[in-house]
Task: inverse folding
């Protein structure tokens, strides 16, 4: 009898101790969201702490929700790059987080109690799924018992209500279906990528004040965006065309300043290549005082380049490991036959004739080395030999890039 009384006394003491020191308590709130665009590059993300009232064990239990996996049947994530980097346990959490965001849920208890792990996987989910245009960020709410995290709730931070999301989705599908139909007419991966690249640039204007600029709506519905919108729209078109691509966040320097930026890695023919769609935008290259004076075409200088070439002025800040980009096979200039290893006058003549026959009046060239670049600039521009190549032409406009050794020449037909 005394033994039972002793056991009961110990249980009472244990309950009192847990009630005083071991109850569930919120120890940290983490919010991640996109910042507003403050410069010409945009696309940055921040993490900040928030204070959330403590919750008891009973309250925490009542908040627990289960992910509806049936809602995920229409989402393609198994072939995504970020998803493929994870182990089986992490993939389960990936699917849970994706389910929360897709269904616009809040306060969902995840199967992981590791906040750092959840933060990492959230980044992977967002990097793989540009479709989540209604997601602004997330909030993680861990609970502790006796100094150990025993439960983590995850919530998405959304920019709209469910009904609004559905209306935007219908409008988005109407536009993207047309674009994807055009891309589908291309049989080769390279051609699909180029068509998606061209469609975005031709139908979008770079505007630092654009609304919804941090997601695909800015490109597909508004026709105005910044780098985050360009990069996500490019990824969206490629993903739905069967081409794997990766969204990359970091910084870029335009020669005078360095600011947050976003761009893509794209897989073509089994190798990855660097792409910056924003820097292919014609009006991104033109200052307001010369916009009406200069004829500009889509720039392909950052179409399918290597790590060495991209990281000359781009810096990665994405925590997700990235594949190497060291192939030149599907670089625009190499693939199109505009890459010069010598001053080949016959090749130049054929290229300019091709431009005239196609009605574009544009010739893009890239040189294999700096000596050839200087020789080419001297021959075509300084010595005015371009006028011997182009028929009945008295005026040209040109763009030079010494770093990438690219030359672009424009003329009226």
Result:
């Amino acid at each position: 009898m005394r033994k039972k009384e002793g056991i009961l006394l110990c249980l009472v003491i244990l309950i009192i101790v847990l009630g005083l020191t071991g109850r569930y308590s919120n120890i940290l709130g983490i919010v991640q969201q996109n910042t507003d665009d403050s410069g010409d590059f945009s696309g940055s993300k921040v993490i900040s702490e928030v204070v959330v009232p403590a919750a008891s064990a009973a309250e925490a239990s009542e908040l627990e929700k289960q992910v509806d996996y049936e809602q995920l049947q229409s989402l393609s994530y198994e072939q995504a790059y970020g998803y493929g980097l994870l182990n089986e346990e992490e993939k389960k959490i990936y699917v849970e987080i994706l389910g929360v965001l897709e269904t616009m849920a809040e306060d969902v208890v995840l199967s992981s109690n590791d906040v750092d792990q959840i933060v990492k996987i959230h980044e992977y989910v967002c990097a793989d799924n540009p479709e989540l245009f209604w997601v602004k960020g997330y909030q993680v709410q861990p609970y502790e018992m006796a100094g150990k995290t025993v439960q983590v709730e995850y919530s998405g931070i959304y920019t709209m209500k469910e009904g609004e999301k559905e209306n935007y989705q219908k409008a988005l599908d109407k536009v993207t279906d047309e674009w994807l139909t055009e891309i589908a007419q291309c049989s080769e991966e390279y051609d699909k990528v180029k068509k998606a690249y061209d469609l975005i640039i031709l139908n979008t204007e770079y505007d630092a004040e654009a609304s919804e600029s941090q997601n695909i709506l800015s490109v597909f519905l508004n026709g105005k965006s910044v780098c985050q919108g360009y990069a996500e729209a490019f990824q969206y078109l490629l993903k739905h065309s069967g081409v794997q691509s990766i969204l990359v966040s970091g910084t870029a320097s335009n020669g005078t300043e360095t600011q947050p930026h976003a761009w893509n890695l794209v897989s073509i023919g089994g190798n990855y290549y660097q792409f910056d769609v924003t820097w292919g935008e014609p009006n991104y290259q033109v200052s307001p005082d010369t916009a009406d004076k200069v004829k500009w075409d889509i720039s392909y200088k950052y179409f399918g380049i290597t790590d060495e070439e991209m990281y000359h002025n781009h810096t990665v800040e994405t925590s997700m490991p990235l594949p190497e980009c060291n192939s030149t096979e599907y670089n625009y200039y190499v693939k199109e036959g505009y890459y010069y290893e010598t001053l080949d006058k016959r090749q130049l003549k054929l290229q300019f004739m091709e431009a005239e026959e196609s009605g574009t009046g544009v010739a893009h060239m890239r040189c294999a080395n700096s000596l050839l670049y200087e020789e080419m600039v001297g021959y075509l521009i300084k010595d005015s030999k371009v006028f011997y190549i182009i028929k009945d032409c008295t005026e040209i406009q040109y763009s030079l890039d010494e770093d990438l050794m690219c030359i672009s020449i424009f003329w009226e037909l």
Summary: The chain has 15 helices and 17 strands. The chain has a mean pLDDT of 81. Residues 162-184 form the longest helix (23 residues). The two ends are 107 Å apart (CA to CA).
